[in-house]
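Budget justification aside, the reviewers requested a transparent look at the raw inputs and outputs of the sequence design task funded under Objective 1. We therefore reproduce one unedited record. The lines immediately below are the structure tokens for a 171-residue chain.
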């Protein structure tokens, strides 16, 4: 499975390079980086993510795949045990995500969700609830009521309220 996916992402990168299209290249690098890190190939994944992030000078800091690569890079900080760095990176990404146009609300919601999860790791439940509520507001506005990512947000909110022993709110 890894080999076929790796070949797929490598072909995507080669195609993007042959086309001279920085957006396609950024997409290929970000997806390759996320896939490699999730498969446990951390160093290779970090290199691909860093390459995608470096493309922000050409495609813009607010380009969706740059933001997603930055989120994945922040996630890796937690994987390495550097939770403070992870939180700091997510906060910076969130500041940039606030400038996104409304058409990119799904990306903004994903960033807010990640920031809320980061606060949960620290046990800062009030902040986690704040970000979960912001995420839910966006997702309720842009998604159908039974969408799976709404359930993810509701779960995050329920977990935070549960840790605060506010069980009525957690239901």
């Amino acid at each position: 499975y890894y080999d076929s996916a790796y070949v797929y992402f490598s072909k995507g990168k080669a195609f993007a390079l042959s086309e001279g299209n920085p957006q396609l290249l950024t997409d290929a690098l970000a997806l390759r980086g996320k896939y490699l890190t999730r498969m446990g190939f951390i160093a290779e994944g970090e290199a691909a993510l860093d390459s995608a992030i470096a493309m922000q000078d050409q495609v813009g800091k607010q380009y969706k795949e740059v933001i997603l690569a930055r989120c994945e890079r922040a996630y890796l900080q937690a994987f390495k045990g550097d939770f403070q760095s992870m939180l700091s990176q997510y906060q910076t990404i969130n500041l940039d995500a606030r400038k996104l146009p409304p058409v990119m609300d799904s990306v903004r919601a994903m960033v807010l969700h990640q920031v809320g999860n980061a606060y949960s790791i620290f046990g800062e439940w009030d902040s986690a609830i704040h970000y979960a509520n912001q995420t839910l507001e966006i997702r309720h506005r842009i998604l159908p009521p039974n969408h799976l990512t709404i359930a993810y947000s509701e779960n995050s909110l329920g977990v935070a309220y549960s840790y605060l022993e506010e069980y009525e709110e957690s239901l």
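The chain is about 80% helix and 0% strand. The longest helix spans residues 2-19. Computational costs for records of this kind are itemized in the attached budget.
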